[in-house]
Structures are given as C-alpha cells and as structure tokens.
Amino acid sequence: MDELIYGLLDKFPTLVLVLVIAGMLVTLSKGADMLVEEAVSLSLHWGIPKMVVGATIVSLGTTLPEVTVSVMAAIKGNPDLALGNSIGSIIADTGLILGIAAMIGVVPIDKMVVKRQGRIQLIAVILLTLVSLPVLTSGNGRIFQVVGIAFIGLLIAYMVLSLKWAKKDAAAGTVSAELEIDNELTEQKGPQLIQLLKLALAIAIVIASSKFLIPAVEISAIRVGIPQSIVAATLIAFGTSLPELITSVTAVRKGHGELAIGNIVGADILNVLFVTGAAAAVTKGGLEVPSSFYMLQFPAMVLIVVLFRVFCYNKKKVLNRAMGFVLFAFYIVYLVLSYTVMR
Q: Which of 18, 110, 193, 326 has fewest C-beta within 10 Å?
C-alpha cells in the first residue's frame, strides 16, 4: 500500500505535491478536531468528570497531529522527519503562536501555569536535548527505544499530576488557565453507536492523511533539494501546530488570553514526552539524530523556551506586543536560517 501511494505521488508535479501537503495538513487537523470532539462527548456521556477530560483527552488531542506524523515517519524509517516535526512544533508553538497571540491582544501570564507546567516545559526540552547528545554513540546521536518508553512513562506521570492539580484547584476554588477550557467541553446528543462510528472515522482520517503526507514531503524535499528534517521542522511543524494556533488566537480575540500560554506550555511538554516518546518507542533502533540538529534545531528550541521563561517574570505579568514581536522575530530568523544556512 505504501509503495502504491509513493508511486502515485511520484508522478505528480512538485506544485501538485505542495498542494497535496497543504490539503493533508488541513485534513489531519480536521480529523484530530473531530476525534477530540467525539472522545470528549463520549467521556462526558459515560460520566467522566470534565476536569479529567480537560487534563487528559483535550490536551492529548491537540498534539495528535504531531504524534501521528512523527510515529508514522519513525515506522517508515524517517527519524529526521519524526524528530524535526517534534522540535519544530515546540519552536513554532512558543515563537510563532505565542508571538502572534501577544501581538494581537493582551496575554496575561497565569502564575500557576508558569510555576507548575512552565518548569516542566523547561526541564522537558533540556532533557530532550541531553538524551539526544552523541555520548553513547559514535557520529550522530540517538534517542534509544528505552528512552522513548521512559518518556511515555513520564507522560503518564505528568497526566496524573495534572489531574491532581485540577482536583486541588477545584477544591480551593481557583481554576488555572489550563483548566478553564473545561467550560467549553460539551456532550453531543445522539446514539452512542453513531458517536463511536464518528470516532473510528476520525482515527481513519488522521492515519490516512499521514499516509499521504509523509511520502509527499519526502518526494518534494528530494526534488527541491531541501533536507527532510528542515521541511519537517518548518512546514510540517507549522501545519501540525494549527490546532494550537487556532485555539490561542481565538482565546485572545475573545478576551481569554491567559488560555494561550496554558495551551502552548502544555503542548510543548507533550511534544517532548508524547510525540518524541511515542516515535522513539515504536522503533527498535530508536530515533537517529542528524548532526545538523545540534547546529540549529536544539539551540533554537532551548533558546526560545528560555526567552519565553524570562518574559514570564516581568512585573506586569503579561506578554505585551513588544515581547510578542521578539518571539515572532525569533521564529522568522529561525525559518531563514533553516532554509539558507542549513540547506
């Protein structure tokens, strides 16, 4: 099946392949949205508390596009695409999305998010960088399968911790920005069988779109002469980050800018533990880390997160337009370097 898809796409002109990539990114995002909606509705129908759904299904669902692309890429033997998508999404989330959010409106900094998830975010990106260093291997680094499994274990621990924080906030009468999304959770009316069929359809859409997306990226990258890792860390990372972008911009425009930071910080953590962890866990040899990643991707990822953390400690406790512009400009510089210096 994979060879048939590759052969079919290889016959298309490059321009058509670019349109296929764009179309598959949109389809992937819509499929993920549909999957989250149906999963949330079924969970509420079965009596699972909203705060549990918000701290687990919703947060995992927004990173589903990244997970699907990275895992499929890892299985197909494309570690640079899998890892590039994960790291690129963190840079896009923190630089591009938060930058845009801060430039279009006020983004209050939630003290609890910065104190709790913010610390985990910084630790996670540093941990990813450290386990990727070529200390135990000669030449390129490697994220071993056991490390991927360990990341999944840390993901479970993080979800349990998030749930405890949710219960504690609910008991204390304080709700952090990350948990305010619970108010948006609704149960759809209709037969459960129909909802289960919609859930299965959403999963099929996500998987099928990834099946077409990855070979389209491979062929396009070869024809244009741009490494797959660069395409994954920029174009694909942007596409799979669309749910976070839409959520953050919508939150700011509706006057709930604090949700943007909670959404992005949580997504960054999951990009390390869930996306990279799952991609490494499904491959026996783990994910090989291209040497070029140490020149740009890893430094850019750590720097953008550190810069965001510095901005979070300003006295006014908001991300203002100037800070948003700096974050956005950082991302633009990263894009330019990716497509010029790193080619």
A: 193
